[in-house]
Protein 1
Amino acid sequence: METSHASQIDEARLQIEELRRQVEHHRFAYYALDKPEISDADFDVIYRQLESLEKHFPELVVPESPTQKVGAAPSTDFTSVRHRIPMLSLANAMSADDLDEWRERLERGLEVEDARQFDFVCEHKIDGLSIALTYENGNFIRGATRGNGTTGEDVSNNLRTIKEMPQKLKPIAVREDGSIALERAAGETTAMKMPALVEVRGEVYMAVDNFVTLNQSLVDANETAFANPRNAASGSLRQKDPRKTAARKVSLWTYFLYIVDDTIKQPRSQWENLQLLAALGFPVEPNRTKVTGIEGIRNFVDHWADSRHDLNYQTDGVVIKLDDRKLWDHLGNTSHSPRWAIAFKYPPEEVETTLEDIKFEVGRTGAVTPTAWLEPVKLAGTTVKRATLHNADQIARLDIRIGDTVVVRKAGEVIPEVVCVKFERRAADSQHFVYPTHCPACQTPLERVGEEVVFRCLNVYNCPAQKVRRLIHWVGKEAMNIDGVGEMLIEQMVKAQLVEKPSDFYRLTEELLLTLERMGKKSATNILAAVEASKQRPLAALLFALGIRHVGRSVAELLAERFNSMEAVQEATSEQMCAIEGVGTVIADGVIEYFAQSENQALIIELRELGVKMAVDADQQTVILPQSLAGKTFVITGTMEKLERLEAEQQIKARGGKATSSVSKKTDFVIVGANPGSKVAKAQELGIKIIDEAEFLALLEI
Ligand code: IVH
């Protein structure tokens, strides 16, 4: 028995670790890169699997699990802001049953017989990104993204470009007892006041019409279009240049506020919250509705199931909040969401159409992926012509054939996918689909590597399709940012054998460019100028441009910051890379493998000779402290005199150590400040070394 339970746990641990890795990966792709790889619905499936396994094996839950954290770590481009009030997430309800379970939880939590009598506020769940706004004495002072819920990015300057966001608030009527008078009774005396501090929560989004215009202009400029309005809003809000945010027009709805002012009482309900937001001058979504009981909620949800597509903003569900704020305090929050609110998510939309063809594309890494070409069909407000088929396994599982009637789903407004085939409508003479065995671009036999599901063309350096994709990646905005060189031009250049690998861009001359069809003198000059300028791109951009597997823009940033030069990155050991928070063995292996290839080494040498900058500028180099705490794990409890906790954690990390929040067998030191918590006892129990602030400072050698 004992061993079988132990082996069950072992198996669960492996599964949990894999699910956590997937959740982290997709959260990062979604939040930090604005490039979701799977639909929201598929993400929810993975997340729920993880939640359910952790529920069965509570001993395997760790504070680092994504179920215990909100969103992704903030990216490094903006100043970090610690939220005064943490930004929580919401629990999801996917069905009427889930809503009923929530009602039962409310009844248990509030110790009432029947939550049907409670008032709820139903609001659209706007599909954008959440934002925290701070106003002091009525003046906008700061706005930040959610980030990981505790710390986000300061995007104040970009937020200032949102037309409907007030820079200055309107004063509000306050009664003598400090309560807010939203509607004044006859004869009542009130004073107009400006709250000392107002913390607002809302959603920045991109209106659907603006999104369509923006994507069209991106396509025209040979740039990558955004997958959905949410990513477009997020990408626009996180532009380094506020003028770009302004040009892209994002919008705002607000849904929460906290007043921090001794002379003014908090609003009593969510309904009053929303009224007050409007009174202060904030934009509030107009279709909010106060309803009674689960019945009322259901009516709202049903009413908007279809009509939500007529709104000029995308919604992915309904947020339901208990109206009475007193009940909020009673129920409290879990580690990542309040118990008094829930997000109802609409099921993904599905529609039938005909599969006209299956075509294959070769990606930058040689991955060959199938796309379904469909008879155009309307779905969730747009016309769908293509859908992803993911990979060969998916095609085999679906047993999909050209001419089939298929069901297509748009989940979370990401790229549509084929869900299933209507076999009963299949033509009698339909032909089994034969998956290609050779690369459509270079005819090299396709292979599956290790346990990967995707087929790859391993003709890495000579496959024309891969060459083109790599060159397209190289000129990209986040990479070398070579303006004016897009997909079509690159295809033309490759065909004319002007460019084959990235270094060839730096050998282009006006004479060579003018041999291309439709190339004018002026364009040629501009292209050469953009190529020249790209030589000065930061090291992080260059590392990203190389297209090293698993090295996205933010990992490139981490590597550049830690190693300061291309040479140092080339020489870095797996251990050194893994000491960076956010870098693990998969990434380290990718880097090492890349630089082990002689073609890549040759490319770096050529680029250097051609004048491409290969190091962080001297004045911006990070000083690397000796890694004296490498491999050591610290937990801090209580308050220290000389160091703020965050600073102490940074000092530990800068020396290669780790700072965690809970004491376990893996902890090496517990640092004890004034008024420590129960962690000291736990440390004693486990026999972990306990040190005070002075001893800690001595360890840091400061
Ligand atoms: S309330 C403490 N209301 O949905 C709970 N959130 O899945 C805070 N969202 O992070 C959220 N519309 O980005 C709330 N009317 C609304 C919303 C809304 C969209 C987003 C928000 C939140 C996420 C949770």
Note: The first strand starts at residue 80 and ends at 82.
Protein 2
Amino acid sequence: MSISANDPNLESWVEVAPNSDFPIQNLPFGIFRKEGQAPRACSAIGDYVIDLLAVAEHGFFDDFTFDKKAVFENQYLNDFIGLGKPITNEIRNRLAAILDTDHDEWDAKELGEFILVPMSEVELLLPIQIGDYTDFYSSIEHATNIGSLFRDPENALLPNWRHLPVGYHGRASSIIVSGTDIKRPCGQQKPADAPPVYGPCKLLDFELEMGFVIGKQTNLGDAVATANAEDHIFGLILFNDWSARDIQKWEYVPLGPFLGKNFASTVSPWIVTLEALEPFRQQGPVQDPEVLPYLQYEGKKNYDVNLEVAIKPENGAEKVVCNSNFKYMYWNMCQQLAHHTVNGCNIKVGDMYASGTISGPERGSYGSMLEISWKGTKPVDMPDGTQRKFIHDGDTVIMRGWCEKDGVRIGFGEANGKILPATPVT
Ligand code: CA
């Protein structure tokens, strides 16, 4: 596969700071709105969004037959993604060619004024209309921590865990874009030795995850093989699976997560294409025991994505509480998709699949406060002198992700959300 946009030697006529998430080699996709305008599809470079309709109006996509106005002047990327990888990858390569310093056909300054909009002047919206959402539980470090905290450290993993990627069907309607405030959820909790009570969640947590977005549908009855799974994955996004631990603890038996999860999940506004992540492939951990044939795979299916989580109190300085990496996943995306469809369950463009909490091997790399504070027994010291066992009102939780290699940094931007006080029903 030729991916000209990934060439580490490419340089753009757009100035890009060395620590920017959006060099010419990234070119992720999103949706932006400029004040007074309809939402439009965009890419990003440096501190600018690239207005894809403006690029089309300049004639750069004239050889593509799809309806540019309908696809690009759109509230969501679904129609764009649905064009298929042969087109969306070519659009990304074309953008790299347009933005490359090595050109002589157009006046860069004039073109820049036409197709670039400062990111500070636009609102970034939820990039896709999410059809179905599934959350997995695929980090062995996370599953082991949770099993140790709530069951038996000697037998932390349940018998099925190493045989299949455990997951549950989540809620798509409450998946929101970075920067959207979240009201602390209320619900039933069960104090020890007392009847259940209703009230604001006291143990509000984040879960550091990555999500992938489906770009190619299947028909009911079809299974996706691990070898073909990447054809169906358009790109990746940062994902915070907000979790109300006290609500979750009381309600989850016997059918799994419900109101402790479905009040909100925060995603980053940018979808980084799977192709942009190609240089960052990594071998996953050895799976023991050997998995069933339909879950076996060949090649490097994990990705080296640095991840961090920071907590920023109201009017306070942020503190990084977690440094993890997507490469730790025991079950990879191809296995997750193969398992999800092995029974004939169909998938659709715009579906979202989240990895499950991504914890690394030690405390500094755990992907939730439940693990970091070890169920509240090891509070985190904040720069303002306060402590955190879980998330307080006024706190903003910020997730960031980036890959780095050969002097190229491919970033995901941020998935941040601020917690507002609860408003209990009376
Ligand atoms: Ca989760």
Note: The two ends are 59 Å apart (CA to CA).
Protein 3
Amino acid sequence: MTDQPTVRIAHLYAHFLNIYGDRGNILSLSQRARWRGIGVQVEAIGVGQEIDPERFDLYFIGGGQDKQQLVIAEDLLRHARSLQAAVDCGAVVLAICGGYQLLGHYYKPHNGPELKGVSLIDAYTVAGDRRMIGNVIVRRPDGSTLVGFENHSGRTYLGPALEPLGRVVSGNGNNGEDGLEGAVSGTIYGTYLHGSLLPKNPHLTDELLAKALRRRHPDIVLAPLDDSLELAAHKRALSLPA
Ligand code: GLN
């Protein structure tokens, strides 16, 4: 019986919601774990499959166009209670753009019916009349920055008690109106930042990885890595025009 710590990642709808290379977030989480000698198990969870809320430490759901969201929204709704149970047991959720929109109460696209979300976060999204496309810089409450790329028409509005991931320094963020980007509720993270997000934001990758690992390895501490390459990419992205 190995005592090597492992992280178990569920990649929800890997083949449907993977726009703008969002699977790069899985690669970043996995590699930063392996570089530390931590075992990694990634399982793709597709439409029609079941989720064991005890099994996974981190759930990832990427972004997609309205038509992909339409395909998976009903199936995701089946998992609402399992995902809430998993979060209640300390699992981490990272949702990007279209996946983020479905974490809230609903997403109303331009055309077609309102898509009911899983209500893991107190937020809702309505498609606006213009697409918000471009580079984004976000400043988090601890003063750190996040960089990424956005491409969405959805405007997401947070409930009064829901914290944003950070404030927009450049770009649009949740809705292009209130200066907020993303949402954080305990171990649940939602954001519009594609890129993919994590490779250029190693501090956020490690924040998510540490929280996910502590679910089954409470005393684990992540050894520092040489982030010179990642931080050089982060610094370059800080200089890009919105
Ligand atoms: N279809 C959604 C929108 O346009 C999400 C897009 C995405 O995931 N990039 O807002």
Note: The mean pLDDT is 96.
Protein 4
Amino acid sequence: MIGRDLLGIEDLDREDIVRILDTAEHMVEIGEREVKKVPTLRGRTVVNLFFEASTRTRASFEIAGKRLSADVINFTPSASSLKKSESILDTARTLDAMDPDAVVVRHSVAGVPRRIADVLGAPVINAGDGAHEHPTQALLDALTVRQQKGRVEGLTVTIIGDILHSRVARSNIYAFRKLGAEVRLAAPPPMIPAGVECLGVKAYTSLREALDGADVVMALRIQNERLGGAYVPSIREYSATFGLDRAKLDFAKDDVIVMHPGPVNRGVELSHDLADHRPSVILDQVRNGVALRMAVLYLFAGRATTPGSREVAGGAG
Ligand code: ASP
């Protein structure tokens, strides 16, 4: 994978995904050490180029790069450049001249990471582009499910909420389908993309049916910044019908886990109680985000060594 871009889960095959998850397991182990640092990317430069706000993803990439001993530079373009695609490419060219080893890009417009990748020599990692994809989120979600359930294949994963505007939903649909899970979607009809069944998923407007026998339930944030119209009569009604609480969870399996990519609108997609307590695994997702992004930086921007070699799992430095 060295030198490749990571623009979406759609471009990965099952083996790629499994390799990333296996490598992330090694990185989890590094995160449990007293000294959480290895020299793997010493002398390498990772640029975080975030055109859209982010808390956990940016911090997660920054910590991931630092744990691998890379030099991490956070580049936050001014809000005015958001609308000028020319200046975005100029920014990319300027960065390219500084010879980075990886550039992590987030943008509110779908497809911008790909355009940047076209002009950049270094691998581009998509950290979320509009409503298109958020590949590292889906990979950290798959890692969390694999840890909690011991497998992904054969599980039933129900994704609830604003599927239409959610890059997390799209990437997770690709990831969980490629790993052999059954994926169900539950949302009010206007929030279900037309023709989504061709991705191998089933869409439900009844939450109860979608939850029946589910092993994993993922609630999505209402994407206020991308709604641009009335998709639900009111947030209160949405919450009453599709907001997850313990009573609704009774329809799922007894050992169901609850996930959310964050940030949570408490009391809207998830009850306060569920946001903070088991079976919610939200903080495990955040923790795994660092390990997963270490794996991605290592595999896409690192040197050609095999996972599990001394350079990854071995000497702290
Ligand atoms: N943090 C995730 C994203 O950037 C989920 C969200 O914002 O709802 O897409």
Note: The chain has two domains: 9-134+286-313, 135-281.
